[in-house]
Amino acid sequence: MLWLLFLIVTAYQNQGYWHPDEHFQILEFANFKAGLTPESMLPWEFAAKIRPWTLPAATLVVLQTLRGLHIYSPVTQTFVLRLLTVLGALASSLYFLRALGLSDYISERQESYARHLLAVLWFVPILWVRHTSESWSSICFYAGVALQLEGRRLSQIRFSLPLATLLFALSFHCRFQAGFLVLGFGLWLLFQARERISVLVLQSGLFSLFFVGLCLLDWWGYGTATLTPWNYFRVNIIGDVASHYGTSPLWELLGFWVLAFPPVSLVLLAAALWYLMTQRRQPLTWAIWPFLLVHCVIAHKELRFFVSIYWMLPLLLAVFWDGVLSKSQWARQLRTPFVLLNLPVGLTLALLPQNRDVAFLGQVWNRVEQRHAAVELWDGASSCVTNHLESPFVQADLPTAFYDHPSAHRTELARDTTLAEELQRARYQPHIFVVASPQYHPELVKAARRLCRQTLSSYGEWLWTPLFARLGSRVPIRQWYLFEDCRPDQLSPVPNLPVESTGS
Predict the structure, then answer these.
(1) Is residue 498 assigned to a domain?
(2) pTM above the 0.90 mark?
(3) Rg of the chain on CA atoms, in Å
(4) In which domain, by residue range, is 252 found?
(5) Are residues 412 and 334 in the same domain?
(6) Is there a single domain that holds both residue 331 and residue 473?
(7) What residues form DSSP beta bridges with 399?
(8) Domain count of the chain?
(9) Residue 55 and residue 137: Cα distance in Å, rounded?
(10) Disulfide check for 357: which of 75, 213, 232, 384 has CB 3.0–4.6 Å away?
(11) Going edge to edge, which strands form the sheet with 453-457?
């Protein structure tokens, strides 16, 4: 129960997104179908029709249900989404470990080790709460494997097969790369488990049927018939658009992982390599190898692509610990320090916002709702994505429309517009003003501080000031401010301060 409570707290605290796709291609897609996000504010992937609608459609159902219950706060809505994700991840992982144990693929002790490691490894909670295609693809895949293993053990495959196949189809349609996990497990069924050909043929037919149904969901999402897996392959692989986001060899990702949190990361890497090389009869080994090899070949790589593997690192470490480390006296004595090393890092990451810009916008929404005030979003203050690469496919300054309050409107200030003029225009209305970082608009922030009360910022001054002083303009540290209770009586002595939009 204590662990479950910690996961719930993590789901609440970990606001924002890990990667922009988590927001713009799930929340904004769902918001678009609800009529709240215009198509012009969607990323280029929408026009290219390369993203499946499985997760956005499910997200829309949750959001509309909450709105039907008069829950409109985006902070609360995204918390519910993260909560559902973490509960699904917990249930799927424990079910998978239990199915492996009952099928004699892991020992009871290894299963116990893995369950405990799920609770203490620093990265597990922050991965589980992420409402992403990678997360839900993993949830569906591991639940599907567990269901099929259980059906084989109980000789009830005809009952478990349709549901397991549906979960595999959902896993693939949430994240197309998961198809290689499904393929690897299918090869294990054929060559290692010696599953009957008739069963595999039936399962392949069911998979195709479910896939057609999910393609109809894409038709509904885009408003036209399309085949998103082919679009994705054509654009990202044949057209090599994925490389516009950067290319990297595998060793760079391995190096980043090793340096992430040594010595814990070194032990995890050793456990993964040992497991994949020695546990050749395990279904997980067969599933991981095709998935891993394909991603080694693809030029564009990101850490998030391997989330499905990270999820099972506790299991790989548990088997490694039981098979190798437990035989050494000195290694057994490292268990307590290993756990203690993980706890402070895990607690810190779990209790901090994932993205402070988005967390800030959520607080602005709540403040507007409480005060029944209009809000001015100046100079793209609601934009939280910056184009770091010179690529037409990496869209700059996508607005997070999902967090816009109905009373909010965006104001792009003209070159000759002054803060005084804007305040004069709105002097008879209760307004809240959100302005950009002093890094980009120092005079605007200075004037706002003179005329208004600063009530909120995306970073604490104690953190932002020394960082900015040290790094200067070389690092684009975004800092948003919320100003309230502006004083019209002090408008007259304010000099004209031109505001120039420099972008971010």
Answers:
(1) no
(2) no
(3) 25
(4) 2-351
(5) no
(6) no
(7) 383
(8) 2
(9) 9
(10) 384
(11) 408-411, 374-378, 431-435, 481-484, 453-457
